[in-house]
Structures are given as structure tokens and as C-alpha cells.
TrEMBL record:
Stated family: Belongs to the peptidase C40 family.
Gene Ontology terms describing biological process: proteolysis
Lineage, uppermost ranks: Bacteria, Pseudomonadati, Bacteroidota, Sphingobacteriia, Sphingobacteriales
Protein's name in the database: Lipoprotein Spr/probable lipoprotein NlpC
Record-annotated NlpC/P60 domain positions: 52-175
Organism: Pedobacter nutrimenti
Origin superkingdom: Bacteria
Amino acid sequence: MKKNLSAKLKSVPRSSLWTVAVLMLLLSACGSRKYTVKNTASAAAAAEAMGKLKNKSLYRFITDWSGVRYRLGGLDKNGIDCSGFALLLEKNIYGIDLPRRSKDQAQVIRDKDWGQLREGDLIFFSFGGAEVDHVGIYLNDDFFVHASTTRGVVVDNIKLPAYQKALVKAGPVKN
């Protein structure tokens, strides 16, 4: 004869139920991280760019923050915005203090030509008009890392048309 579910659950020791619940939570957490690049060719190229980083602390910082969701004004792993991500990366990796807002950050860089960019240089965009409203950090081979409003912290290719249209300026922080 069939027992109902509650009767079955009563016969299982509480410790077993807790173990199953914790395992289910852990397993579901493994799949909760967002994919940062949808195209597998792009994902492979982004992984290759990450592998070419000269500064291994930068590599660790990016992988540690990869997939953290975007949150306007955020400055921690519960959510971060683009200027907050740039601020933390520059401070933790290069010991450089930046202003909090991306348009203010754009004022403290030495503008460079695109072909002269180096690992760690800042890249600024204007998606909503004339003012700078987004920032990322150049890696190499046309790849940069940033906190995307839709995908969180990701590595992207600067050659994508949306980025090319919005690119305003780029370069290192002035000494």
C-alpha cells in the first residue's frame, strides 16, 4: 500500500533531510552563475585573452568577480556597477585611487590612441548621449572587462559594434 508523502518524510531521520536539502542547495548554486559570453568562439577568445594577462593578480581578481551581478551604486559581491568595479580593480591591483563615478574617472586619464592601449588602461563609453556613462578595463587583443548592466562582470570584445559606436576615450590614469 502507498503511504502518503508526509508519512514517508516522518520515517526519514531529520539529519538525512537536512543533508539532502544542503546538497540540493549546493548543486543548484553551481548552475546559478551567469554565462558571460554566449558565442563559444567568443568565449574561447575571451579565455585566451585572460590566459595572456601579464599580471596574475589581475587574472585572479577578474575570475573572482566574474559573474557578479550589476547593481547601480553597488560596491561588493552582492552587486557592483561599472565604475565601482573599475575603482576596486585599480585600487587592489595597481594601488591607484579613482573617483567613484565613471564620468569623473574619465577626467583623470591620459588619453591614448586605441593601438597604444596596455593591460589595465581604462576605456570609457557613452551609451546615453554626450557624457561618459560606462567604464571598462583593457586586457589585451581587443578584450576588456567591465560590469555589464545585463550580464554582470564579464570579459567582452571591444570590436563589437555596440562598443565601437559608444567608445569615447581610453588610456592610463595620469601620474
